[in-house]
Write a structure and sequence with these properties.
alpha/beta; Heat Shock Protein 90; 5 domains; seven-stranded mixed sheet; six-stranded antiparallel sheet; CheY-like_superfamily; membrane; Receiver_AHK4/CRE1_1st; transmembrane; transferase
């Protein structure tokens, strides 16, 4: 069969034809790009050269302007000093110390201080009323400044050409002058328009003022006149213009030859010939006056600098240009051409490489698209898991609830076994759903840790109690030990910490058939200091296994060989850092090191690298042999990371495994009230000061027993053999230090295999005959057993040598109960029965749109004597809970049609707030609302959405607490019972305290 090119073949042909076109197009584009880059480089370099030229010109111009300004200011200061001289020695002396001859001689001899001035003169202020006397005194007439042809008097004139100054209010005739300008004596400076304005500005401003440029006849240069007012006294800077005019005595003026001034300046500079300088008077911006410099053609570059000669009214600028045109930027031209050649050559070389890279980039884009799709699929998976788990938990609530209600009926043994099996299977399914939910929340970043105070030792007791039945069934030791250096109260997420321990212990229980599981908790710094000083673990008798005699027994919890636990945390950063125990005790951060040691089957070496991967187990047969999903360790690792810690393990097949992790918490500053109540419980306080002896041949196990007894306040001594125990028991009491032994705790396996329950003879005699001191009762005997058959248990009690048997694993509550019963310290508490009566006759409203869930909740609450009423919507709940009503509490589903639980709760709280305000203000009588002064019914959320419906959301809308579906009877009872006082006030039906409140009691 011959096959044509087909659609794909045509596409390839088209791609081949268009490929050449695109290559040609790419070549043109690359050449155009190279040319553009070269042009840009040329323009950039040209711009840089131009900028450097501008900067050079600006620097040179600014330097000249600064020097000119400085020299002018020096001359101005000397003129000002001369004005002060006239004020002091002419007007300040009587008779005057200055006349024309003195003035001329002084100014001639001090001319070197004013090299830029062509002459100075002093004009006296003369009023019209003083003119006649003034002219008689001086023997000449005050002359007008202008001649008959209206030209101003400059350097040379004929006196007969000048006319007397016309009549005016004030005159300013020159009385003193330098010899170079002696021709202006007797001329009235006020008769010239510009000089008059200059004089008026000078005396009102008390500063030097300048005239506009005028031509000096002798030099044919443009010059300016600087004028200072002379006052009869020193005036403050705050003097008004009127005060200054009143104090004016005369005016001192000096003429400046601007071209000569600039020439002297430029002669001081080596680069005089490089630039052309012009000085302009720009007071009139539209018609600037060129005071210095030639009129040159524009050479391209130009810069101007402002000149400040001390007169704010006059504006002056210095304009600078290069004398010659700027040459072509040859460096930019040659560099850009060279770059163009290089770019074209390099572009030609890389053109082929770019074509080859294009295919790789195309493949990369496809991979990125696949990555985006994979990430979207991962998000969809998390959303799917959350949604499906929510939908599964709701019917599972009905299944488990109905099974519990079924088990409460009269069933035969077979039916009861079937119901229990179904319930356990349902609980296993819920546990799996919870693990999958945790994994989904962690992957989506929605898992947040709480920060609440908790008792670490109580948390671990609770974890141990979860596995007590399984450990007893398997006959393995399960024990917990916490270092006494670990604070009693920590702040953190106790639930997630408990989840990590539960996962690790659950794994160990699953894979351990003989031996032990040992959980220990130390401070990280405690382990580090001990390891740094001794090269070993903390110096507790709980750690390193050692051989004992010829037998393969070890100093471990069960005497079984274990792996080297040091290797499980040898790479932890906290243990390899610079922290120490002292710094931790002084700070609020508590770093814990937790180890879970077991003697199970161990983990194969080829599977150890993937042990923390989700849904991964050691091999395919593991899940069939031991069960499980392989997700617990993955979740534990993520939770440890959220707690700022690390997790690791060491394992040897056939010996066992040790998992270790660190976690950071905050030191609890105070003990919460509920924990204080627990510490003051008689069960934990009645044993303080008691004396006990632990008889056990294994140091590790004896220390664990001692740890739990010391938590009850019991003084404990450890005996590794019977003789040592007898020496403790028979020791005479001493009132100061030694107390009689109240109890002896003997481990079942203390004397090795074969001994069974046959106590050694000395202990039997001691039990039968008592101590040598007959006034003191013999101690109570307690047998510690990990597992016992019913015949063994009956035999131990019937012999009479043992007062009671304490079953392991050890917990404080269990030990306290056994000791209390054996020591006759009181009957068993009836607190449980009293608490169960809290709900008797309480009216509780259950709101859920699912009929099965309503039936389950109602059945569970009715079991405790509550009167339950059910509704299927939020609107119905709103009408039922409108004050006044008779309900003591309400369970509210959060997801319901029309009005969900959050909206219903918000509206209920709003109505209660309005009613409370009306009662408080006296608008209505409290009797109208059945005598209740403050309405707040406890509302507890029921939700299967453990991701979205968080505790914070419930509190924010006004709910008091919440329970997660599927719930058990005890869970419902515990959640609602906290709002009822065991001994209520007879005047009030109930007294509730809201979780969102700060302490006010709310009555419904």
């Amino acid at each position: 069969m011959v096959v044509g090119p087909g659609r794909n073949g045509c596409e390839l042909q088209r791609n081949g034809k268009t490929g050449d076109f695109y290559q040609w197009k790419d070549g043109i584009q690359s050449k155009a790009t190279a040319t553009s880059v070269t042009a840009w480089l040329f323009l950039h370099m040209k711009s840089n050269i131009h900028s450097r030229n501008e900067e050079t010109l600006a620097s040179m111009c600014d330097e000249r302007a600064r020097m000119l300004q400085d020299q002018f200011n020096v001359s101005m200061n000397h003129v000002h000093a001369l004005a002060i001289l006239v004020s002091t020695f002419h007007h300040g002396k009587n008779p005057s110390a200055i006349d024309q001859k003195t003035f001329a001689e002084y100014t001639a001899r001090t001319a070197f201080e004013r090299p830029l001035t062509s002459g100075v003169a002093y004009a006296l202020k003369v009023l019209h009323s003083e003119r006649e006397e003034f002219e008689k005194q001086h023997g000449w007439t005050i002359k007008k400044m202008e001649t008959q042809d209206q030209s101003p008097v400059q350097d040379e004139y004929f006196p007969e050409m000048l006319q007397p100054s016309p009549v005016q209010d004030e005159y300013a005739p020159v009385i003193f002058s330098q010899d170079t300008v002696s021709h202006i004596v007797s001329i009235d400076m006020m008769s010239g328009k510009e000089d008059r304005e200059n004089i008026l500005r000078a005396r009102t401003s008390a500063k030097g003022v300048l005239t506009s440029p005028f031509k000096l006849l002798k030099s044919n240069h443009l010059g300016v006149v600087l004028t200072f007012a002379v006052y009869n006294k020193d005036l403050p800077s705050t003097a008004t213009p009127e005060e200054r005019i009143q104090a004016t005595q005369g005016y001192l003026g000096a003429s400046f030859d601007v071209p000569s001034l600039v020439d002297k300046l430029l002669q001081q500079l080596a680069s005089k010939q490089t630039i052309v300088v012009n000085v302009y008077d720009t007071t009139n911006a539209s018609a600037p006056i060129n005071m210095y410099g030639p009129n040159v053609t524009d050479t391209g570059l130009f810069h101007f600098s402002n000149l400040d000669f001390g007169d704010p009214f006059r504006k002056h600028e210095m304009h600078c240009r290069f004398k010659q045109k700027v040459p072509l930027p040859w460096s930019a031209i040659t560099t850009s051409l060279g770059v163009l050649v290089i770019v074209l050559l390099v572009g030609h070389i890389f053109h082929a490489a770019i074509n080859r890279i294009a295919k790789v980039e195309n493949d990369y884009r496809k991979m990125m698209e696949l990555k985006v799709r994979a990430e979207a699929a991962d998000v969809a998976k998390s959303q799917f898991l959350a949604t499906v788990s929510h939908e599964i938990r709701t019917p599972m609530n009905g299944v488990l609830g109905m099974l519990q209600m079924l088990m409460d009926t009269n069933l035969d043994a077979t039916q009861q076994d079937y119901a229990v099996t179904a319930q356990e299977s349902g609980k296993a399914l819920i546990a799996l759903i919870n693990e999958v939910l945790d994994q989904a929340k962690i992957e989506s970043g929605k898992l947040e840790l709480e920060n609440v105070p908790f008792d670490l030792r109580s948390v671990l007791d609770m974890v141990v109690s979860l596995f007590s039945e399984k450990s007893q069934d398997k006959g393995i030791e399960l024990a917990v030990y916490i270092s006494d250096r670990v604070p009693e109260i920590l702040i953190g997420d106790s639930g997630r910490f408990s989840q990590i321990i539960t996962n690790l212990v659950g794994n160990s229980i699953k894979f351990t058939e003989v031996g032990h599981i040992f959980v220990s908790v130390h401070l990280v710094e405690e382990v580090k200091c001990s390891r740094d000083s001794n090269g070993e673990d903390p110096k507790e008798p709980l750690e390193t296994p050692i051989k004992n005699g010829m037998k393969e027994t070890y100093n471990t919890l069960s005497g079984t060989c274990v792996v080297n636990r040091l290797k499980s945390f040898e790479n932890f950063k906290l243990l390899n850092g610079g922290s120490n125990l002292q710094s931790t005790e002084a700070s609020n951060t508590i770093n814990l090191l937790v180890t879970v040691e077991d003697t199970g089957v161990g983990i194969p070496e080829d599977a150890q690298s993937r042990i923390f991967m989700p849904f991964v187990q050691a091999d395919s047969s593991t899940s069939r042999t031991y069960g499980g999903t392989g997700i617990g360790l993955s979740i534990s690792k993520r939770l440890v990371g959220l707690m700022g810690g690390e997790i690791g393990f060491v394992s040897e097949p056939g010996i066992g495994s040790t998992f270790a992790f660190t976690a950071s918490f905050t030191r609890g500053q105070s003990i919460p009230p509920e924990m204080k109540r627990h510490q003051s419980d008689p069960m934990t306080t009645d044993f303080r000061g008691r004396h006990g002896v632990v008889v056990d041949g294994r140091n590790v196990r004896a220390e664990v027993t001692k740890y739990h007894l010391q938590r009850l306040g019991i003084q404990v001594e450890v005996a590794t053999d019977v003789n040592t125990a007898l020496s403790y028991i028979c020791r005479p009491p001493n009132s100061s230090s030694t107390k009689p032994v109240d109890m002896v705790l003997v481990d079942k396996e203390a004397w090795g295999p074969g001994s069974g329950l046959a106590f050694p003879r000395p202990l039997k005699e001691l039990k039968q005959n008592g101590r040598s001191n007959s006034t003191i009762a013999p101690p109570k005997m307690f047998l510690l057993a990990n597992s016992m058959t019913n015949p063994e248990l009956e035999q131990a009690k019937s012999v009479g040598y043992v007062d009671t048997v304490i079953m392991k694993p050890l917990r404080v509550s269990m030990i306290a109960a056994c000791l209390q019963e054996a020591l006759g310290m009181g009957k068993k508490t009836k607190k449980g029965h009293e608490l169960q009566s809290l709900l008797c006759d309480k009216r509780i409203l259950v709101v859920d749109d699912n009929a099965v869930n309503r039936k389950v909740a109602a059945g569970a609450l009715k079991k405790y004597g509550a009167i339950v009423e059910c509704k299927d919507s939020g609107k119905a709940a709103l009408s039922m809970l409108h004050p006044p009503h008779e309900f003591d509490a309400c369970f509210m589903d959060v997801q319901m049609p029309e009005m969900d639980g959050f909206d219903a709760t918000r509206q209920i709280r709003l109505v209660e707030e309005q009613v409370n305000e009306r009662i408080k203000s006296g608008e209505v009588s409290v009797e109208v609302y059945r005598g209740v002064a403050h309405w707040h019914v406890p509302i507890l959320a029921m939700t299967a959405d453990v991701i979205q419906a968080t505790h914070e959301q419930c509190v924010r809308c006004g709910m008091d607490d919440y329970v997660s579906k599927p719930f058990e009877q005890e869970q419902l009872y515990s959640a609602v019972a906290q709002f009822f006082d065991p001994k209520p006030n007879p005047k009030q039906r109930s007294n509730h305290k809201s979780l969102t409140d700060t302490g006010d009691n709310h009555v419904s």
